Amino acid sequence: MSQTHFPVEVEAPDISAYRRGNTGVDYVTTFDSGTAGPHAMLSAVVHGNELCGAIILDWLLRAGVRPLRGRLTLAFMNVEAYQRFDPAAPSASRFVDEDFNRLWAQDVLDGPRHSSELRRARALRPLVDAIDVLLDIHSMQQASAPLMLCGPVLKGRELALALGAPVHVVVDAGHAAGKRMRDYGAFIDPASARNALLVECGQHWERNAERVAWQTTWRFLRHLGVVDAALAARQIEESVPAQRLVRVTEAVIASSPSFRFAKPFSGMEVVPREGDVIAWDGDQAVRAPYDNCVLVMPVPNNVKTGLTAVRLGRLETR
Ligand SMILES: [Zn+2]
Known about the structure:
The protein is about 20% helix and about 25% strand. It has helices at about 50-65, 80, 105-110, 115-130, 155-165, 205-225, 230-235; strands at about 30, 40-45, 70-75, 135-140, 145-150, 170, 195-205, 245-255, 260, 270, 275-280, 285, 295, 310-315. An 11-stranded mixed beta sheet has the order 1-3-2-4-7-5-6-8-14-13-10. Strands 9-11-12 form a 3-stranded antiparallel beta sheet, with no helix packed on it. α1 (about 50-65) crosses α6 and α6 (about 205-225) runs antiparallel to α7 (about 230-235). It is globular and about 60 Å long. It starts with about 25 loop residues before the first strand and ends with a strand. It binds zinc ion. Zinc ion binds near residues 46, 47, 50 and 138.
């Protein structure tokens, strides 16, 4: 497998102390400030091998961080997969039966199928229904630059830009293979004020992903006014580059087993000219459809035929 050469620099925290929580759903804890304000949720380990979110939630819980106004929910999502994490086989615990982040369509949640992930998603659903704003913390298989997936609706983009980091904000419509939690229900209803972001903090097991998750979390909580501004200010690195907005226009689907990229790309590289060769799908060249084409989350090696090898995005002026 291509991804196993990434070293595991971080440790999966023991989260067993958080099992009971206080919401009636295991591994979910809500703190209520007792004053009016938004109900913010931070979610971790939607994918069981993505450690940075678990590390951040563990830090917040151990530090006793509490909301100043509104409510703050800290949720470990696919715990069954996370508990299978093994640094010797770090890719194996992404999920137990299926991808937890492709189940968030009403008909799937209400449907007849059963899986470990569906059981957990159904248990968590009332809690997700009760929140106002979600930050779903993820990481990536490849060593890509961090990015915020803000979904297809303007309010997601506005929230991502209000946070000021990470640099790359990706506007996309989600996955054909199934709906992500960040695209669930009211989160993509333009008429609703409820909102969600998904941050990809870097490579799953690199130390820097922790830092990106920490920075994004504090920016999120500060923007919502959920935490003390002075406390947040002490955590946040203020001098960051200007954000860049990338609109995903299409997915490149591998149609041959010999799909290969023209160069080793890790993600968010900009291909300067329309017509430049990005990859070879068998003997067919895959070319940039426009100037300044951004490669979003490429899967460099061994992409399965019929699956997405990379998504292409256009740089937009804000
Ligand atoms: Zn993920």
